[in-house]
């Protein structure tokens, strides 16, 4: 880490290196705080002392979104606890100021201003819905804050002040559709979504991909208000259209009604191919494994993922939050936030937002539970796409994985 | 001098003056820019609470849909600001530059016709008040002319709040949907996100709110205010006296709507966005709670109510992020159980008599207790009094043919 301060001439580097070696050893024993005085790592008045760095956490702990955001709160806390146990960042322990956005967008705006202006936090881990992110975005840009945003979302955004640790729309959709065509020979698609920006944008991309790049056909496209629970007329339309694939992005409580009513109408995984963008392990708790068995979900992470990183992560998560805790896609993405921030701060050798932002592109995280991720120039992550089949016990069995990392492309050309 | 003091007390100007000092001097000196901006946000809810005092406390009409008017005022302002923020340079990344970003996401390729007038600031200011008042007039006229009132009216206003929310969320290409209108930057080229701008906007909000309170106080002290009270207490008697009761209610509803809308517009300017979460049933009921906590008969109390409830919300949620909803619930239940007339009622029933006793004890050297402020209700029912409120209530008594409603008219000072 201290290598970057050394001059570049090989000969001097050697000499200085030799001279610095015992010094570096001594310093590492004292810790970085002594080596990196606060005045050096914090030139913009953030809440950083010799022993502590303050960060904010802004999710909905109450209100309708609490059920979804609790996983993110827990995962971020777990990552922060683990980092602190390792000695913190630049020799400083992380202290969290928790604020409740209360599922209310004006409250998110108020709290983000409080964190940035009053508490001077070095970074914020937070938000879940697009609406909450849109509410706080102008404040982060105005106050030059830093936000790690965990949710898979619609794209069409790229801010200097945000690191997006979830997938933008194309990363989640394109691989799934290609897989549907190759493995399931799907040619006709029925698109269903909740009526707000994320499903609308996702379906726009899906339609372009199917019609322009796959030579397939969209046989229906329907949107329902958030919280809608009566899907009978939709089920009749599906029965008439007989699509090869139902492509769904129904969110929240509507999910439960949607899959229960599909099953009641005889549309089950054994008889119909369905691929969704919005059912993770969290949603599965409400939907119930028996209603989703045989349907497929397209995400970048599933709890059942078989690798050493993930096994350690799942074990630590269950140890902290109980054996019944489940980990969905967003929860894992939230877990990445503190680690990515740590890596960027250490690369920059500073907590200053501008320096951390500048250091962020190219940051790699080979220890990510999902495998390996890397931050792109556009502040989104390179990550793999995966398809998993719902099991009757409510778990997911991963059946396909993109061979390469999907390049994030928040403003996809040809899909606008 | 005593006459002046009596007048000052009865007109409520003293309490309004105290509020003015608090808002215009004490808060700005005591708070940093961030907290002052928060108070500014609370004050924008204060407009709704003041409107509810007129509508509910004086008019006896409970509306659970004031969020509708708050939202319409706020959205009108947001539309203007959004158009200003969507100039072709800053939206160059879109498929159709020059239109608001949410329209672009929803595949609109041109600005809808009904958005065009909101390019004009003058029209926007007009629309902020006119659109909500027009809607209030239509709803009020349709309901009150048919003598729909009480619980039924409250339910209908709730339904309107729900309908408007669903409409805005459903028409996301035109309204921004669930996300609302975000990323509002400048007002006529003036950056509303800077600290200085927020301070200026705070003073504008506080001044407008004080002006609204004065306006409402003036209405209360006029014959109209007395009639509103009479109507609340014995509607049939007022109707039989020849008054068109429904139009008075329509007036009160429109007045409350206009005030809410101004609050909404100031909210948009200070917070920098507008969303359907501010319009629905829950926020509308919260707004009634502001008035209830403050005291539904007291204009100044309503402002304190809005300040206290929102301050509590902020404070509790910052200090106890996991428990704060329970604390808020305890506050509401406590207020309603312990002092049903709110903070102002508490003042009238406990603080004022205590002050009077102390004053009486201090001045027991034979001076007649001329300045003793008794219960406001007693003043209104004392026909010999020369206060404006009382003289109007005597007029009401006369107008009513001596049926005696005057004795039932009760009013409290602001």
Q: How would you describe what is shown here?
A:
The complex is a heterodimer of chains A (416) and B (414). With 416 residues, chain A is of the alpha/beta class. Chain A has three domains: 2-30, no CATH class; 52-167 and 306-382, Rossmann fold; 169-299 and 386-401, Response regulator (Rossmann fold). Chain A contains 15 helices and 15 strands. The model of chain A is unreliable at 1-33 (pLDDT under 50). Chain B has a two-stranded antiparallel ribbon. In chain B, α4 packs antiparallel against α6 (121-145) and α13 crosses α14. The two termini of chain B are 21 Å apart. Mean pLDDT of chain B is 84; it is low at 368-414. Chains A and B meet through β2, α5, α6 and α8 of A and α3, α7 and α14 of B.
In summary, what is this structure?
The complex is a heterodimer of chains A (416) and B (414). With 416 residues, chain A is of the alpha/beta class.
What's the structural blueprint in terms of helices and strands?
The complex is a heterodimer of chains A (416) and B (414).
Chain A: H1 10-30, H2 32-35, H3 38-41, E1 52-59, H4 66-85, E2 93-100, H5 105-118, E3 124-126, H6 130-143, E4 147-149, E5 162-164, H7 169-184, E6 188-194, H8 197-213, E7 217-224, H9 232-241, E8 245-249, H10 253-264, E9 273-276, H11 281-287, H12 289-292, E10 296-299, H13 308-321, H14 329-348, H15 353-359, E11 364-365, E12 373-375, E13 381-382, E14 386-390, E15 396-401
Parallel strand pairs in A: 1-2, 1-3, 3-4, 4-5, 6-7, 6-8, 8-9, 9-10
Antiparallel strand pairs in A: 10-14, 11-12, 12-13, 14-15
Helix pairs in contact in A: 4-14, 5-6, 7-8, 14-15
Chain B: H1 2-11, H2 13-30, H3 33-58, H4 66-85, H5 101-105, H6 121-145, H7 150-170, H8 172-175, E1 186-187, E2 190-191, H9 195-221, H10 223-233, H11 235-240, H12 245-271, H13 281-294, H14 299-319, H15 324-338, H16 342-362, H17 376-381, H18 388-399
Antiparallel strand pairs in B: 1-2
